[in-house]
Each structure stands twice: as C-alpha cells, then as structure tokens.
Amino acid sequence: MKHLTSLFFFLNIFNLFAQYPLEIRFQPDSSVYSYQINANPIEVHTIVLQNIAVVNTGQNSLEINRLTISAFKDSVEIQTTTIHQGKIDSYANRLHSIQEAGKLEFLEAKLQTKTYLENIYFCASRWVNENNAIVITTFPLLFENLPDKIVVSVFGYDNQGKEVVSTNEIKVIQYKSNNQYSFPLKGTWSAFGAPSLNSHHRWVGIQEFSYDFIKMDKNGNSHKKDGSKFKQYYAYGEDVVSVGDGKVVSVINAIEESDILLQSEDSDEHWMKVKALQNELMQKGFEYVLGNHVIIEHANGEYSYYMHLKTNSITVQVGDTIKKGLKIGELGQSGMSSEPHLHFQLSDSPDILKSRCLPIVFSNIGDKNWNILYGEIIKTDN
Fold first, then answer.
1. pLDDT at residue number 370
2. pLDDT in tens, 353-382
3. Nearest CA among 17, 336, 325, 44 for reference residue 201
4. Residues 166 and 234 grouped into a single domain
5. 3-state secondary structure of 23
6. At which of 143, 173, 203 does a domain end?
7. Where does the record locate the signal sequence feature (predicted)?
C-alpha cells in the first residue's frame, strides 16, 4: 500500500507538469556568441539573445508573471535580469500586431520563426493560450567576466492560480576562427556598421557580427558635392579583395544599382523610400537585398560574404579557387544600400537565411587583436 501511495503521488506530480507544458526555446538554439568591445584596462564583452520564445504546448491558458535571465560562470551566478509583466505585454503585443498585419514574412530573417516556431500563434499579452507563444527579441547583456552559460526561467500561473515554472539554458562561446583573415579592402576605411550594440547589424542573427565599410575624407564626409549620385562617393569603385584562400560558391553580378536613397529630402520621406525599396527587393527575392555579391568558402566550414558590389564588376566565377588578397570585384551601390559601401560578414553557411554570422578578427590592421567597433577608423598594413 505504501508503494501504491508513492506511485499515486508521483503520477499526480507528473500529470501536474504534463498538463501545463511551458517550453523555452532559443533561436539560434545551440549557443550564443560573445563580442568583445574593450580590451584595456579591462575586458568588456557583449551578448545579444536574439530570440527567446516562451511556448505553451498544453491545453490550458497560462499567465506569464515574469522571466529571468541569469548568467553563470563555473556554476556561480554572476548576473540576473528580470523582465516583468508590463515589458512582457509589450513584447507580446508587438509581434502579435505584426502577425495580424500579415507582415511576419518580412521579419523572417530576424525572427527565424519557420525554423523553431512553425504554426505557432503569437499572443497579444502575457496570457498564453494553447499553441501560442511570446518572443523576447534582441535582449542585450554586458559583462566584465564572460559567463559560460545563460539560464532563462519563466514563472507563471494557470487559471487555478497554481504556479508554473520552466527553465532552459544556452552555452556562451567566445568564438575564435582557426583561419587567418585579412581586411577585404586596402587603405583607410571607417566602420559605418559594426557589431557594437548601437549598430543595426547586431540585432539580426544572420548578420550579427557583420560590417559596413565606407571611405571618408579628412572632414569626415563620405562623398563630394551633395552626395545625390553614387559616383560622388569616395568608396565607389574601390577594389574588394578576398579575405582568405578559398573557393567561390556564389556570384550575383548583374543587379542594377540605384541612387534612389541618396537623394536629398527630409527624414520622413527618406524612410518611406527605404521601406518601399525594401518591399520591392524582398518581393523579387532575398538575393536582391544583398545586391551583387560574392560568397567564398574557406576552411573549417566558414564563408565570407561581400555584398552591394558594383554592377558587372565581379572578376571571379563559381568554382574558382582563389588566394587571399585577390581582387574579386568593386565596391558599389546594389541591393538594399543607403550609400556606396561594402557589407562584409563571415558566416557558417553559404545560405544566408539559414546561417549564423561569426565574429572575425583581421590580421593586417596593426596591433589590434580584438574586434572592430562602430565608427572606428581602420588602416590596413598593405
């Protein structure tokens, strides 16, 4: 009878948790990469949790009360952040509104919902019904001591007032490539976009550690005259070179360039043009967003991307085996580009929509052995 009672108790506990399954899912799901933003006098590292989904896979509605994000190093908790009800409601309503407006497809590169939230409905508040989810997006964290894992816990209640708790964790990796790469341009350049927390690149996993490079004069201008034509920009037509030995796996060379975003106007009109151009390019296909580009496969499953190149300037073909420093094309204004610049990134796949962007350190920019920051001036050694 004693064993029967224990078994009955165990089954009731099991049913309690089985009745209210609440899952925490990450995307990317295997690990999160850090990015060092300072070296001296102390090291400072940043992490961005791109997508944290709280999914109700049960049959009962649950109210999410709070969510905690805790950092651990050697099993010791070193930092905890709590997201309370009001902020949870805000996250929920934002994605719910986008889904209701039929615009979710335009954010797939960011949210990756087809990868880990297929056929999931996004609820409008912290009340999560069956097969509903709330997604916490682009959550930044700053550390002096880099943790080795992040633990996310969610606390909620069912409609009977019983507490429901779920926890999941993700590894933190300070990614360092075994390959040696050189800078993709020659001379002096400015990092117009970088993986700093104040840069738009950092908020999308597939381009999280990418760069936009422009060229400026001594007065900090990137163009001559009024900058309304792409040929007025100092960077336009500059040679782009391979960062390392490898094999060319993708080339797009014939997309026309446009100066529509360079015309002088007020801010509101400019952003209307940006949205219109983005919609137009997305409807044609994501390769049109990238513009003319080259993708090169390197050792250890890494791929370098060179985007927005000048029309018909690419000098390599798919299948070519090339050496570090070889000219592959010229900097241009194709695709979704606000002004002539090189968008460069290192990734783990030749399919950008299924890839993870990787941190990269260049070997030929002086004694700097950590990461480039937003607005930084880069001078190559050759």
1. 63
2. 999 999 999 998 876 556 888 889 998 876
3. 336
4. no
5. strand
6. 173
7. none
Six token digits for residue 179: 């390959």
Helix H or strand E encompassing 284: helix 267-284
What does the pLDDT look like over 247-262, one tens digit per residue? 999 999 999 998 888 8
Q: What angle do CA 165, 104, 285 make, to 5 degrees?
A: 135
| Same domain as 143, residue 235 | no
Radius of gyration of the chain (CA): 24
Length of the chain: 382
**Structural domain of 50:** 18-173
Which tokens belong to 354? 């299924």
Q: Within 10 A of 89 (CB to CB), how many other CB atoms are there?
A: 17
The reported pTM is 0.90
β-strand partners of 62? 128, 158
Retrieve residue 171's tokens. 């590894």
**DSSP code per residue over 163-185:** EEEEEEEEEEE----SS-B--SS
The b/e string for 11-41 (b: 16+ C-beta within 10 A; e otherwise) is eeeeeeeeebebebbbbbeeebbbbbbeeee
Same domain? 196 vs 240: yes
The counts of H helices and E strands in the chain are: 6, 21
Paired residues of 168 in beta bridges:
152
DSSP string, 193-240: E-SSTTSGGGGSGGGTT-EEEE---TTS-SBSTT--SGGGBTTTT-EE
Burial of 197 (0-12, 13-18, 19+ CB in 10 A): middle
